[in-house]
Write a structure and sequence with these properties.
Layout lengths: L1 E12 L2 E12 L3 E5 L6 H9 L6 E6 L2 E2 L9 E4 L11 H12 L5 H8 L15 H13 L5 E5 L7 H16 L3 E6 L10 E6 L2 E6 L1 H8 L4 H11 L7
Helix pairs in contact: 3-4, 6-7
């Protein structure tokens, strides 16, 4: 069963077609990696799934409802590339505010602080944090409540290897409890952490496959070389 179904999606921004007739399904309860170079359309696809992007054509269905439906507000967590929290509030004040907005229990604040390794920073102003720490506050806000789908745009950018490992372990735990995660990255080595991969280039899905199947199909030993092989051959698509 698919958590997200995208059909014939076309998005035009600033007079330029960013996504054209794109169709893809994201299976439930898996960690799906959305990989591709910067500017290939990953963020636009994610914005379309969350329901904050104007569509020129096509349809996006999320958890059985049209993307952006008000009833999805508590069921979908979204983390943008730029931290979407208030800099003049403390970490704890931000999380308490967002918990009230979505109706999450107050006890969730401590839980998500532990999840993102910020339990020792609840009273720090967000503006006083590093870029990586601010990104983790945004991720903590997305984890409040019990989201069924998490859409994470470059969540590990700027993080040290130890914290990246910790967050990926968290993503795997969430998936084991039935949460669907769509995680974008331009770091190809993060592919090994995903159940399924969507490779994007120039607003199109270049491949939709598991990593082992993708490597077998391209006759390569890692996802970066598989990506280059697909680009050079002009092939698109994959096993759904």
């Amino acid at each position: 069963m698919a958590a997200v179904e995208v059909s014939g999606l076309t998005v035009v921004r600033g007079g330029r077609t960013v996504l054209e007739d794109l169709s893809v399904a994201i299976p439930s309860g898996q960690v799906v990696g959305l990989l591709g170079p910067s500017g290939c359309g990953k963020s636009t696809l994610m914005r379309s799934i969350v329901g904050v992007q104007r569509l020129a054509a096509g349809q996006v269905t999320v958890l059985g409802r049209r993307a952006g439906d008000r009833q999805l507000r508590h069921r979908v967590g979204y983390v943008t590339q730029a931290p979407s929290v208030y800099g003049d509030l403390t970490v704890q004040e931000n999380l308490r505010y967002f918990a009230r907005v979505i109706g999450a229990p107050a006890s969730d604040v401590s839980r998500v602080l532990d999840d993102v390794d910020l339990a020792d920073r609840p009273h720090d102003l967000v503006n006083a944090l590093s870029g990586g720490q601010r990104a983790r506050v945004s991720l903590a806000a997305a984890l409040l409540g019990t989201p069924e789908l998490l859409v994470l745009d470059e969540p590990t950018v700027g993080l040290d290897p130890v914290l990246r490992e910790s967050l990926w372990n968290l993503f795997r735990r969430l998936a084991s409890h039935g949460v669907t995660l769509l995680v974008s990255s331009h770091v190809m080595d993060e592919a090994v952490r995903c159940d399924r991969l969507l490779l994007m280039r120039d607003g199109q899905i270049l491949a939709d496959d598991t990593l082992p199947a993708l490597l077998t199909r391209t006759g390569t030993s890692d996802v970066e070389h598989a990506f280059l092989t697909l680009v050079r051959s002009g092939r698109r698509g994959g096993v759904r």
